[in-house]
Amino acid sequence: MTSLSDATRGRILYGGDYNPEQWPEETWHEDVRLMTEAGVNSVTLGVFSWSKLEPRPDERDFGWLDRLMDLMHDHGIGVVLATPTASPPPWMGHLYPDTLPRDEDGRTEWWGGRQHFSHSSATYRRRAAAITEDLAARYGAHPALTLWHINNEYCTYDWGDEAAARFRDWLRHRYGTLDALNTAWGTAFWSQGYGDWAEVLPPRHAHYLKNPTQVLDFKRFTSDMLLECYTAERDIVRRHTPHLPVTTNFMPLWAGQDAWRWAEEEDVVSVDLYPDPRDPFGAQSGALVQDMTRSQARGPWMLMEQAAGPVNWRGVNHPKPRGLNRLWSLQAVARGADAVCYFQWRQSRQGAEKFHSGMVGHAGARGRTYQEVKQLGADLARIAPHAAGAPLRADVAVLHDWHSWWAGDQEGRPSRAVDYPQVLGAWHRALWQSRLTTDFAHPEHDLSGYRLVVVPQLYLLTDTAVDNLLAYVLGGGTLVCGFLTGVADEDDRVRPGGMDARLRELFGIRTLHEWWPLEPGETAACEGGLRGTLWSEELEPDGTADETVPYKGGELDGLPAVLRKGRAWYVSTLPEPEALRALLARVAAGAGARPVLDGLPDGVEAVRRGELLFLLNHGREPVTVDVPGTRHDLLTETAVTDRITLGRYGVAVLKP
Ligand code: GLA
């Protein structure tokens, strides 16, 4: 078993996607000079090089890559080598139209962009395997090679005929018989009963609402098909280089793949992260993804891509103000990253991403972006000996599950205003603002190591997951569940009573009479000043709760908005941010989960990684932070006694 430490060897990997095929060879020499000057020790090559490596079917052109691999090695820069299978060459679609995916309306996704491959196409898979095999055979023994990067951001769907055939196979495997499928999908509704497997299709364009379990299974199937594409290539490179780790880069909190399941198949978990520099909660949304990636990795992880400046895919694309790139990069290290990499090294002059920043922007080496990249390289080198490989400890886990998201986030629900990622983000933000270090976990994971488990919303819970939550509380854990949790079983069938009976009993709820979703902007007042948003519930308590916070006024007047029975809490609304923060801070304190530091000024994040204390000022004004005792700041190489002032976007990495 290999891991990220086989690639980092005690360093923090620093660098990014390098697309030298877009540049004349003289530029390569300028590039390595600038890389060396900036402390870059890792580049990712070949992500989109398929048409260069295989210009015509079965022809190979490796000469340019040979020279690059050597050039990198000569300058002490390791190579993360990508299989180029995310963007097949034009000849592939032209000669083999069966490799092109179809959308749900039956339209073909043509070449001319990228990711125009059908995960189900046998031709695509065969050709992807062949180029992977040849790459692995040619470079497996190259001394520059440190890590394999399979494909890029697997994210495609396919509703076409070959995908339909594979979907039927997948369903046969899951259900065995059509009867079982009909039962699971509830096809008695709207005359959907299937009498022949050939009738079963992906959920293509339909007149009105689609069968929700069919949609759910299609999402499961899509994640599994893409995973098959990944593992097929992974197995090829592993055969050649069993000593080298393999990864594929996730998109942050991406709906299209069950990343818990995927992470089990990776040696290194990596993610691409692009918070909006103008988002007032950019730092927290970054922290959420960092916490989730660390939890999937169960240890150090890799920031495979971020932007040194603006991206080009938002409505308005803002650059990063001075210092922000450094701050967010060090935040990733604080939260467990052992690699800080970018898309991309040199900003393109042509193509769809020419207005996306690079580590070297259009302004070149004199540009502010590159100058800051250079400073960051020096910072990372200073902290690497102490930070790389060091673990984080969290007392709190937030539960998240893709299957629940897929089931809960469909049409035909009580409220379109409920957006799962937003609810998840709101709960994580409340914990982040309370400086509680938080892991994420799957609802069936072992939770016994956590003092507090938080379930923002798990609409779908398997029986095993319900058992797990009950056992956790029985074993002494504190559980807080948000609204619309435990509603459906694995087939998206509503549980009797509208919420799992054992969970109702756990929280002291006799009857869930109705859900009362709120309009956007509407609030539900509760006793003690708490106000709920988005949702409320008409709950009849069974009299066993130890504590309740009732709704005040309106139709639900006097009924419980929040219930606590022993160590189990149920919150039937989304409290406004400050109320949610205060509630979770109180519950966490009761559960013995401690914030990293008390009394921090607003906007200052504190994270402990190993023996290091990271302090990050997300504000534009300087702040002074009390840190009793004497420590050494690795970034400034000075001693810090009792207090430290952090400038705009300032960071300190303190070692005892
Ligand atoms: C993704 C891709 C990159 C690039 C960036 C732009 O992360 O993997 O190839 O397109 O987005 O932000």
What would you say about this model in short?
With 656 residues, the protein is α/β, with parallel strands linked by helices. The protein is 33% helix and 19% strand.
Task: Throw out a few tags for this protein.
656 residues, alpha/beta, TIM Barrel, Rossmann fold, Immunoglobulin-like, 3 domains, 9-stranded parallel beta sheet, 7-stranded mixed beta sheet, globular, binds alpha-D-galactopyranose
Overall description:
The protein is of the alpha/beta class. The chain has three domains: 4-158 and 227-387, Glycosidases (TIM Barrel, Alpha-Beta Barrel), CATH 3.20.20; 396-591, Rossmann fold; 604-655, Immunoglobulin-like (Sandwich), CATH 2.60.40. It is built from 18 helices and 26 strands. The strands form five sheets. The chain has a nine-stranded parallel β-sheet. It has a seven-stranded mixed β-sheet with strand order 11-10-12-13-20-19-18, sandwiched between helices. Strand 24 (623-633) and strand 25 form a beta hairpin. The protein is globular. The two termini are 33 Å apart. Bound molecules: alpha-D-galactopyranose.
